[in-house]
Amino acid sequence: MFKDEDETTPPHTPQISRLKKKLVRLKYLANKYKRAEIVQNALLDLSHMATQVSSLEEFYIGVHQHLKQLISADNFFIATQDSHTGAISVPFFADEKDEHPSQMFPAQTLSTMLQQGLTGYVFRNGNPLLCSEEKVEELIAANEILNLGSPSHLWLGVPVKYENRVTAVLVVQTYDTNVHYGEIEVELMTFVCHHIAGVMERLKHQEQLELAIQLRTKELSQAYDKLKLEVYERRRAERLQKSLFEIAELASSGTDNPNFYPQLHNVIRHLIPANNCYIALLDEQGSHLTFPFYVSQLGNTHPGSRALKDGLTEYVLKHRRPLLLAQADIRQLIESGELYAEAPDLNQTQNMHQWIGIPLFIHNQVRGAITIYSLSMNQNYQVKDLELLTFVSQHISAAIEKKLAAESLRRSYEELEEKVVARTTALAELNKNLEKEIKQRRKMEAKLVHDAKHDALTGLPNRAMFMERLDQAIKHVHRHRLEQFALLFIDLDGFKQVNDTLGHLEGDKFLIETATRLRSCIRGNDTLARLGGDEFVILLDSISGISDAQDVAERVIQTISQTYHLGDAEIHSGASIGITLSGKHKTDTSESMLRNADTAMYQAKANGKGCFVIFDDSPSHNVLRDITFENDFRQALEQHKLELQYLPIVHLDTKQIHALECHLCWEHPVWGNIPYEHLVEIAEQANLKTELDLYILAAINKNSPILKAKFSDTIQLHLMLSSQHLKHKQALRELKLALKQTGVKPQQLWLFFNEKALVQETESHNNGFEILDKLGVNLGISHYGSGHSALNSLLLLPIKGLKLAPLTSMPLQPKQLKLITAYQQAASTLGLQTIVAGVEQIEQIQMLHSIGYVLGQGAALASPFSLQENTSLVCA
Q1: Average pLDDT, consecutive stretches of 10 residues, N- to C-terminus, the chain (876 residues)
Q2: 838-849 in b/e burial notation, b at 16+ Cβ within 10 A?
Q3: In terms of Cα–Cα distance, which of 849, 793, 850 is closest to 826?
C-alpha cells in the first residue's frame, strides 16, 4: 500500500558531491603525511649518516643516495666555493650525458666557466633557481649566463648557506620530459640544504685539520732526518778526532811498543772497513819494500822484503797520489802492461773488488804506502772514504816518521856503546833529529792553523779569514772616523772556458798564476783573499779616497788582461770588478759590504766585462728597488700605460729588415723613460714577469692592423719570454690562450727563452716546448753561450733559432772568435736560424758576415721604433 522511500526517492546530489570532495581531501592529506614521513625518515638517515662519515666525498655520495629517495636526482652535482679565493669547484658530479666540467673545458679554468653558468648565477643571487629550457634561453638572452653543457628539461639549483654566506650549491636536473619539479621539490631541496650546511663545514674543517696534521708530521719527519744526519756527522767527526788522538798517543809510545802497527790498523778500522790491509815501507836505499804490517781475509802468508817491481804498491809510489781502483781498473792496467808485466807471480788481485792505496810522505818524500782492499761486492768504498784515509794518512806518516826516527835513535845509542869514538857525532845527529822533529811538529801545527784560514790551492786567505779582517776594518773605521778603506770584488772572465777546454789541472794553474798577479797589484798591508771558484776580493786598508781604489782596479784589469801561458796554449782573460767604500752607512756590516761589492761587480759584467763599477746606493740608482716605484709599475700595467716598440733584425749584407723584436718602454711621470731592461728587472722583483709578457702579446694584438699596413702580413715577430710560463701549468695555459688570441699567424711568432733558465730547469722546458710547438709557433733560445748548455740539448728540443749573447768590444780574442765560429757552424749543421744580438760596431758587422752569420740586431744596424704617430720616442 505504501512504497519504500529508499526505492522511490532519488539520492541527494549535493550530498554526494560533498562526500567526494572530502574523499579527495582525505587522499591528499594521506599522501602529504606519507610524503612527510618519507622526508622525515630521509632527513633522519642524513643526520645519522653525517655522524658516521669521515670525509666530504663519502658525505656527498650519501646525500646523493638519500636525495634520490625523495626526488628524481639521477643527474646531480655539488659545487663549492672557496671563502678566500672565490674559486668554484665540483667535488661531486653524476650525469647521464655530460662528463665532468673539468674534462669538457680543458683549455679554460673550471671556476671561470662555472661562474658564467647557472651554478654561478645561484652563487651570485643566493636564491633557489628552477629553470626550464625556456627560462635558460631567457637568461642567456639577458647575458646573465652562458650556455654550458647539454640542454636539460628541468634544472634545479639550491644554495647551501652557512653564517649568511653561500658556501655551496646542490643541483639536480632531468632530461626526461615525464619528470616534473615544483615548489615541493624546491622546498624539499632547501630544507635538505639547510640541514647539511653545518655538516659540510664541519667535514671541511676536519679535512683541513687532517691536512695540516699531515703537513706538520712531514715537517717533523724531515727535521728528524736532518737531526739524524747532523748526529751522524758529529759522531763521525768525534770518531775522527778520537782516532787522531790515538795516533798521536801511538807516536809518543816509543819504539818498545810491539803492537804499534796493529794498533794503527785498529784506528783505521774504527773509521773505514779495513779487514784487508797492509803497510809497505821503502828501505833507506829506496830499492826494496818491507811490510811491517799485513792482514788478509784470504789467509795469505806475511810477505817478506822484496825488490821494487811493478806491483800495485809500486804503482802508488810512482804516481805519488791516493788511488781508488775497482777490479775493472786493475784488469785494464794489467792488460796495458802497467802492472805485473815484470812480476806476474806477485799478482793476487783476482778476488779483489776494490782497492785503495795512499802514499806515505816521510821526510817530505814518498817512503811507503798504506793499502786497504775489499773482497766482497757488498763492501764498496766511496770517494769520501778515500779522502778520509788520505787525511788520516798524514798523521800516520807523522807517527811512522817519529817511530822510525826513534828506532834510528836507538840504533845510534847501540852504536855509541860499541864505538865510543863516534859518541860526539852520534849525539850531534841525535840533537839534529830532535830539532827536526820539533820543527816538524811546529810546522804541522802551524800548517793546521794555516789550512783552516787559507785557500788550499792558492795559499790566499779564505772567506772565513777575510770576513774576520773585514769585520776588524769596519770596527776600526767606526772608532777612527777620518780613516777609510775600500773593498774590491773581482770575478774572472772566461774561467769556465779554461776549465772546459784545457781541463781542471790547467784551470788550477790559471788560478794560482792569477793569485800571483793580484798580489803584485796591492800593498803589503792590504788583504787579498779567494772566496771560491774564480772570485777574489781585495781589502785596501787606509786609503785617501776613491781614486786609490780606482788605481788598484785599473792595475788589476791591466795585469789580468796579459796573456797566460798554460801548457802549449795562450789564454786571454779579463776581470770584472765591483768597488764599495767604507763609511757610507753606520749600519755597515761585512756581509752588507761584500754584497754591495758583488752587486757592483755584476753591474760591471753587464757593462761589457773587463771594467770596474763603484757601488752607488743613491736614491736615483736604487729606484728599481723602491716599493713606490713597484706600485707605480703595477698601476702602469693595469692602466695600459706601457708602449710597444720594435727593434729591427736585419740582414748583415743587405741591411733589409728580416724580423722585429718586440719590447716595451714606459714614460714614468718622475723618472722619465724607463727602458725595457729595467722593466724586466722590476717585473722579476715584483713577480710580474709573466704578466709583462702577456701585456706584450695583448699590445701586439692591438697593433697588428697597423703592423700589417706598415709591413707585410708575413713579417716575423720575436718575443723574449720568461721561463716562468713553462714551470706552472696555469701559466702555460694562459700563455697558450694569449697566443691564440693574437691577430698574428702562429708561423710569424718566434718565442725565445733564456739559455740559463734552460740549463737550470731542463725538464720543464722540454715539456713546455712540446706543448707550444703544437701551436705552430717558432721556438728559440736567447742569450746562447751564456748558460753553457750541452750541445745535445739542441737536438732534443723542437727549436728553430738561436739568439747569441751580446758581443764584447772589438777586437775579439782568438778563443772568443773560435767559439762564435763554432756556434755558427753547429747551428748551420742543425738547420737553426742564428741572430747575433748587441751589434754595436761596424767592425763587428764585417767580422760576423765573414764568419757566415746572416742576421743581427743592435745600434750599428738599426734603432728601435714605435708605431705611434710620435716616432721620436725611443726607449733604447
Answers
A1: 47 76 77 68 70 75 78 84 84 80 68 84 89 86 81 87 87 86 83 80 80 86 84 74 72 69 82 86 86 83 84 87 89 88 84 88 86 86 84 80 77 75 77 86 82 88 91 90 92 81 87 93 92 91 90 92 86 90 80 87 77 73 57 88 91 91 87 81 82 91 86 88 86 90 89 82 82 92 72 79 76 76 86 89 86 89 76 38
A2: bbbbeebbebbe
A3: 793
Separation of alpha carbons 39 and 191, rounded Å: 10
Quote the CA–CA distance of 785 and 804 in Å, as a whole number: 6
One DSSP character per residue, 223-254 reads HHHHHHHHHHHHHHHHHHHHHHHHHHHHHTS-
Q: What is the DSSP letter of 144?
A: S
Query: In the beta sheet, which residues pair with residue 88?
Result: 81
Nearest to 841 by CA among 804, 874, 810, 813: 810
d(CA 173, CA 74): 8
User: How far is Cα 16 from Cα 234, in angstroms, rounded to an integer?
Assistant: 103
Report CA 649 to chain centroid distance, whole Å. 33
Q: 344 in helix, strand or coil?
A: helix
Cell output for 835: 741572430
Give SS3 for 159: strand
**Angle, to 10 degrees, between the axis of helix 260-271 and the axis of helix 383-418?**
170
Contacts 24+ apart (CB under 8 A), 510-518: 510/564, 510/566, 510/571, 510/573, 511/457, 511/458, 512/457, 512/458, 513/564, 514/560, 514/573, 515/458, 515/459, 515/460, 517/559, 517/560, 517/562, 518/490, 518/556, 518/559, 518/560
The SS3 call for residue 94 is strand
Return the number of other C-beta atoms located less than 10 Å from residue 65's C-beta.
15
Strand-pair partners of 264:
none
Question: Among residues 534, 541, 588, 632, which one is catalytic?
Answer: 534
In angstroms, the CA 181 to CA 194 distance is 19
d(CA 843, CA 849): 10
Rounded to whole angstroms, how far apart are CA atoms 774 and 103? 20
CA-based torsion, 624, 626, 632, 633: positive or negative: positive
Residue 80 near residue 168, CB atoms below 8 Å: yes
Surface-to-core class of residue 180, CB atoms within 10 Å of its CB (0-12 exposed, 13-18 middle, 19+ buried): exposed
Distance CA 857, CA 838 (A): 6
The answer to whether the beta carbons of residues 738 and 694 sit under 8 Å apart is: yes
Task: Provide the CB-side half-sphere exposure for 523 (13 A, CA).
Answer: 11
Nearest residue to 160 via CA among 251, 59, 297, 269: 59
Let me know if 534 is a catalytic residue: yes
Residue 654 DSSP one-character state: T
Please classify residue 104 by burial: count the beta carbons closer than 10 Å to its beta carbon, then call 0-12 exposed, 13-18 middle and 19+ buried. Answer: middle
Q: How many residues does the chain have?
A: 876
| One-letter amino acid for residue 189 of the chain | M
Helices (H) and strands (E) in the chain, counts: 28, 28
Grid cell of 614 as nine digits: 763603484
Q: Which residues contact 240 (CB under 8 A, 6 or more apart)?
A: 271, 388, 391, 392
* Rounded CA separation 848/863 (Å): 19
Tell me the chain's radius of gyration from C-alpha atoms. 42
CA-nearest of 792, 800, 721, 713 to 759 is 792
Per the CB < 8 A criterion, the answer to whether 549 and 540 are in contact is: yes
Q: Which region, left, alpha or beta, applies to residue 518 given φ > 0 means left and ψ of -120 to 50 means alpha?
A: alpha
Q: Are 569 and 502 in contact (CB under 8 A)?
A: yes
